[in-house]
Each structure stands twice: as structure tokens, then as C-alpha cells.
From TrEMBL:
InterPro entries tied to this protein: Diketo-Methiopentyl-P_enolase, RuBisCO, RuBisCO_lsu_C, RuBisCO_lsu_C_sf, RuBisCO_lsu_fd_N, RuBisCO_lsu_N_sf
Domain of life according to the entry: Bacteria
GO molecular function: 2,3-diketo-5-methylthiopentyl-1-phosphate enolase activity; magnesium ion binding; ribulose-bisphosphate carboxylase activity
Family stated for the protein in its record: Belongs to the RuBisCO large chain family.
GO biological process terms, semicolon-separated: carbon fixation; L-methionine salvage from methylthioadenosine
A Pfam entry, by short name: RuBisCO_large
Keyword vocabulary terms for this entry: Amino-acid biosynthesis, Isomerase, Magnesium, Metal-binding, Methionine biosynthesis
Gene3D superfamilies: Ribulose bisphosphate carboxylase, large subunit, C-terminal domain, RuBisCO large subunit, N-terminal domain
Every Ribulose bisphosphate carboxylase large subunit C-terminal domain range: 122-403
EC number, as in UniProt: 5.3.2.5
Protein name: 2,3-diketo-5-methylthiopentyl-1-phosphate enolase
Enzyme class: isomerase
Boundaries of every Ribulose bisphosphate carboxylase large subunit ferrodoxin-like N-terminal domain copy: 12-103
Amino acid sequence: MNSCTATYRLYDDKADFRKKAESISVGMTVGSWTELPQAKRESMQKHLGQVLQVDVHEPEGVQPGERYADVTIAYPNVNFSKDIPALLVTVFGKISMDGRIKLNRLGFSDDYLSAFPGPKFGISGIRDLLGVYDRPLLMSIFKSVIGLNMDELKDQFTKQALGGVDLIKDDEILFENEFTPIEKRVEVCLKAAEAASRETGKKLLYAANLTGHTSSLKSQAVKAIQAGANALLFNVLSYGYDVLHELSSDPEITVPIAAHPALAGAYYPSQHYGISASVLLGQLMRLAGADLVLFPSPYGSVTMPREENMAIRDELISSALPIKTSMPVPSAGIHPGLVPLILRDFGQDVVVNAGGGIHGHPMGTEAGGHAFVQAIEAAQQSIRLADYAEADHPELKAALEAWGGER
């Protein structure tokens, strides 16, 4: 296939969707067609978009505003360079502003994919780093970090690490500051991780938030890695997919990158506009090289419909792409009582990610981590959480009393 494809959902009560699709295929490629002389048409043929499919949905009794069509158009590779910004401008640039239209799926040619090595570690590589192969992973999040000095940050990190988590990530709003610059907090936190590991017996990845001017991101990343960083957190949508692509494929960036979904809500939630969550947080994050991808879960405080979560999951782990898989990280409002639901929907290859569900535990942050560990143990053995809690697991019991869940 010498083209990449885009599938859209177009809403219109009266339009001839076939004509609309043809208009898009021409307007987003050669710009005009019928006005061109025959000789020019022949020379431009290789650039012309092609309508592959138009499926109209207009059942009897369809209500105003509900008539739509799913349209797939092929865009010749010759039209754009092998980078994500060029592809997005080609398939959704100006038409994103032309009525009710949503980009729901992308298809990539082998030639286009040749420019993308994908995640450097992926699910298998992250498991290798941690030495954990038989269960979901557990992540905790720094909270209320703005204004903390290094000692306060170290104290919070230590409590999380002693709770038995596998990963700890910065809050995405922790930017470079005079109190906890990235190389200093990496050094301090990893020393704390080593001390905690002697008690827990677990390895730990710490994802430090990579921030600053775009031109300085690589030097910031290298500085953190030289200080001992073993993972990075990155706000992909604020910087752009191409920045993630360059970082993830750079041989000097030798640690996994976790992609944060900040700003995603500006793109995917509308039924009629924007880019679907499965493209935004699934296909493109993995293609750009994210090893772990965070996104709102269907269970907690910032919710996403379950079918959209499953669509993201499918894109992150699909064998259709010839690159490594990315680890799904459903997030926001997660507490121990939700663990069985997470494992039901995502299986073993998932990161259970919690902030308030750990720090807000009635017995403290360390106990919050233990409660999640116990919930994972119970869910893997198909034991009811309440029964497991009563069997000498007071941390889980306190969590269930505080937040509820499977009883």
C-alpha cells in the first residue's frame, strides 16, 4: 500500500456523503480536479486522494442531527513526509474546521511505518527492567508537590516506595524549579529507592517529569539520565508527537518514557468533532514511541467511556503494528476496590496507577501502597476483596471501608 488512510465520521442531515467524501479526497490533496486540463490531471494523478469506503447510517426514524457516514480515504505517501505532524495536517488539517467531522482511525503504510522504531522498551522491556512478569504493575504519583523542598520530596517518595509500588511518577505539573531541579530530585529519589528496595525486595522505576523549552528537552533528559534517571514522564500533547518521536528514538535516551494525556480532553470527548481517543492516546502515542501511556479510566474521578478505554488498549497492544507494544495505564480516581475491574478489562499487562488512592489511605501513604498490593494479590487469585481483607490484611480492609469497591 502506497498510501495512509484516515477514517472519519461525518454528521449531516441532508448531505450526499459520497460527494462529500470525494470533495475531501480532492481538497486535502490536489486541491482541485475538474478544472484541471487533462495533461495536468495525468501528472497529478499520483497525488490524488482516493475514497475507499462510504458507509451511510440513516435508519428509519433517524432523528435530526443523528444521520452520519463513516468515510475512509487514502492519502498517497508521496504527498507528505514521514512524520506525524505532516500526516495529521494532510488528513485532518483544514477539514477539522469544516462542520461536524471526527477522525476515528488511521491506517499506516509500510513505507510510512519504516520511519518509526516505536517504543524502545515497551511492555516486555519494562517488565525486564523490573523483573516482574506474572502480575500487573503498580504505580503511585507524587501529590501536592509544588513548593516542596528536597527533604519533603524525599520523604513522600520513601513512603510510596515502602508501600511496595513498582513505579513512581512525578505529577505532570511539577516543572523545573529552584527547590527540586530534575537532576537533583532524580539523585535524591533514586537513593531513597535503593534504601526502600532493601526492605521491599522490589526494583523501582521513577519517572521524572521532563519539561522546559522544546529546544532544551534532550539536554534535560540526558542530564536526568546521567544523574541516574531510569524513566521519564512527558506531556506529549503540549509539546507534540514529533518531539516524543525524536526523544524515544534518540540513542542517548536510554530509559522508558511514560506519556501523560494532559490536554487530551480538548481533542477526543465530543461525539461530532476532534480526534478519537483510540487515535490520540492509542495509535499515535505508540507510533511516536511511548513505552507507557496514561489515560482516564472508566472507573474513577475523570472518566472515559469503557468502550473508548478498550479501544485505546487494543491499539496499544495490537499485533497489527510491527513495533513493540505500549503499556496501558488507566488513571484518575483509582482506589483498591477498583482493582478487580481493571484486571477484568486489561488483564495482566496493565499498570494500576493511583494518587489519592495511595496518599489518602486512612493509615497513611505506605499503607495505601500495601492495600493495592493486597488487592492485586486477591484479584489474581479470584478471591473477593472483602474476604482477603479479613484474612489479616488491615490495609485493604481500611481502603474498602473508605472507598468501597468489590465486597
